[in-house]
Amino acid sequence: MGTFSPGFRGRPRSSDGRLPPGQYEAYDFPVLSAGPTPRVSRDTWQFTVTTETGAEHTWTWTDLMRLPSERPTVDLHCVTKWSKFDTLWQGVALDLLLADVETAAEFALVHSYGGYTTNLPLEDLLDGKAWIAYGYDGDDLHPEHGGPARLLVPHLYLWKSAKWVRGIQLLLDDEPGFWESAGYHDYGDPWREQRYQGD
């Protein structure tokens, strides 16, 4: 476990208050993954929301492409201390995908192809704060950055924006994901430097 591309450092400059504490600005798009990069075909890709009662709501790639998309421009903040400003994405808002899902859940456990998981409160996926993103910078999302589709939750550290997303499990009680079980923070707010448990 633990495949990282080291050596990326940003040039210091003013960030106009957009740089959370302890971060530096990166000008490339570093690739960090907890294992090999899954190669997921769009022909077999599926995204499933499973409620606390076991009810499933599933979208194929064709289903996803038929939904209205948004093009958010957001800043990214990685727990390894790089931040990247004004990244351009295309994807479907979780608000739309969860609109017809009946649930009393307050937490979500996100699952990826390859076995990665991460947890976060359900409210952090709603109200225009999260997308299933399949486009980046005007192009298809490349596999090394989570293509064909990844979760995008830019207000939290980037490990919460699970690459190669395949589903969300809605839960009544919080359940730690991959990095959270290894000591990383359950929430991961970059503005409060919530990198590790206890921060």
Give the number of helices.
Answer: 3
Any idea what the shape is? globular
Q: How many β strands by DSSP?
A: 13
Query: Which segments are poorly predicted (pLDDT under 50) over 5 or more consecutive residues?
Result: 1-13
Mean pLDDT across all residues, rounded? 92
List the topology elements.
Layout: E1 3-4, E2 24-25, E3 32-33, E4 46-50, E5 56-60, H1 61-66, E6 73-77, E7 82-93, H2 94-97, E8 107-112, E9 117-121, E10 131-136, E11 139-140, E12 150-152, E13 165-171, H3 178-181
Parallel strand pairs: 2-7, 4-13
Antiparallel strand pairs: 1-3, 4-5, 6-7, 7-10, 8-9, 8-13, 10-11, 10-12
Protein described:
With 199 residues, the protein is mostly beta strands. It contains three helices and 13 strands, in the order βββββαββαββββββα. Strands 2, 6, 7, 10, 11 and 12 form a six-stranded mixed sheet that branches. The longest helix has 6 residues, at 61-66. It is globular and about 40 Å long. It starts with a strand and ends in an 18-residue tail after the last helix.
List keywords for this structure.
31% strand, 5-stranded mixed beta sheet, 199 residues, 6-stranded mixed beta sheet, mainly beta
Overview in brief:
Helices cover 7% and strands 31% of the residues. The protein is mainly beta.
